[in-house]
Design a protein that fits this description.
two-stranded antiparallel sheet, Alpha-Beta Plaits, 5 strands, about 35% helix
Amino acid sequence: MKAYFKNIYQALSSIMIGMSITFRHMFYKSVTIQYPEQRLQLPERERNRLFVNIDDCIGCDQCARACPVSCIKIETIKVTPGDTVGKTGSTSQGKKKALFVSKFDIDLAKCCFCQLCVFPCPTECIYMTDVFEYSEFKREDLLYHFSDLSEVQVEEKKKKAEEFAIEQERKKAEAAIAAAAKKTESPQNPSNENIEKN
């Protein structure tokens, strides 16, 4: 019987302790916000979704090499004479662009938001944004494509670069043949003739 009343006392006392804490917190200032209508101001150095300003990208591949999880994939094509990369052929800082960036993909499903890719970029074209709401139903939708070249343009540029490389090899071979022919046609060295006479 004594245990029965002890259990009732413990139950009521624990309820009273819990309710006193609840009533005490009813008069505290609210610390929650009504998200998404209200939003907290993000800190200055927040690390969220990556963005690439492809107009400033020179295809140096330094960001991809710095990435610890290999979530950045870059492919480039050499510029042939008479061709211009983008609108001006240079970055906003005035650096000349010598490569077409045919592929610049970032898989944000792999990204660990370490920001290590941002610092080595010489043109500061890759940076963290304040966008953190980008959940997707499909994993492949988290693969972001930043290249501004279409598949047709990429094929054209590749073909042009291959043709230019073949042309350069042909010119090099012709120059080597011409140099060899010139060497065989030229008279023997006079110093050699003097040695033979003696």
